[in-house]
Amino acid sequence: MPREILITGGSSGIGLETARAFIEAGDDVHIASRNADKLQAAKQELGDVTTHPLDVTDQAAVDALFVELGALDVLVANAGVCLQARLDDANTDEVWHTTMDVNLNGVYYCLKAAQKTLVDGGSIVTVSSGLGKNARAGYEAYTASKHAVLGLTKCVALELAPRGIRVNAVCPGWVDTPMSRADSAEGARRAGVETDEFRKEAIAGIPLGRMVEPEDVADLIAFLCSGAARAITGQSYNIACGEFFN
């Protein structure tokens, strides 16, 4: 019997490839995104998927979507932003609040709504980051938000364990997505180098010599939502081609 899957931030990057993986497994997949154009493009690419416009920072809209969808088997809380700002940048406060609203509050709203409608024995995967365990100058807001997602994941895993609902996180390193390419361009601008040079230097620091592909992360998420991971909850899994180990 097909499972009912909801993926936030499902119109591109990791979310899009995760939707593809679940569709190929025969599940009924819903993707949500605040970008209507990307949702339409994802629908055309994936075909058998239901799309929902959603801004995860709007708690009332999040609650309404979960009520509309009813019983879910899986939630992948993937929606997020990656913005850079050092403490002395003029826009640092704006970046802080925007990042926390999307990356932390948005995940919290989704988990809070999901616990009411997720079936017993269901699964939740949150998408944190390698910077949820490590740090990088100029990424204060992003790093703090992704650390917080890991703490939230652990707490919710304990709360929902009596219902057999498993809650885990994935922590990707550099993933070749539109978001990381935009982040590379900003990093290159700040470093005063070309984007290609910046990306080559980043890849040079990765032991396996490449960035993670979105489908790599999708495969890990699909595993964590499968019966093969039935004994796993409250964990965070690095997927970074060896870029970090803790």
Automatic annotation (TrEMBL):
<protein>
    <submittedName>
        <fullName>SDR family oxidoreductase</fullName>
    </submittedName>
</protein>
<dbReference type="Pfam" id="PF13561">
    <property type="entry name" value="adh_short_C2"/>
</dbReference>
<dbReference type="InterPro" id="IPR020904">
    <property type="entry name" value="Sc_DH/Rdtase_CS"/>
</dbReference>
<dbReference type="InterPro" id="IPR051122">
    <property type="entry name" value="SDR_DHRS6-like"/>
</dbReference>
<dbReference type="InterPro" id="IPR036291">
    <property type="entry name" value="NAD(P)-bd_dom_sf"/>
</dbReference>
<dbReference type="InterPro" id="IPR002347">
    <property type="entry name" value="SDR_fam"/>
</dbReference>
<comment type="similarity">
    <text>Belongs to the short-chain dehydrogenases/reductases (SDR) family.</text>
</comment>
<dbReference type="GO" id="GO:0016491">
    <property type="term" value="F:oxidoreductase activity"/>
</dbReference>
<keyword id="KW-0560">Oxidoreductase</keyword>
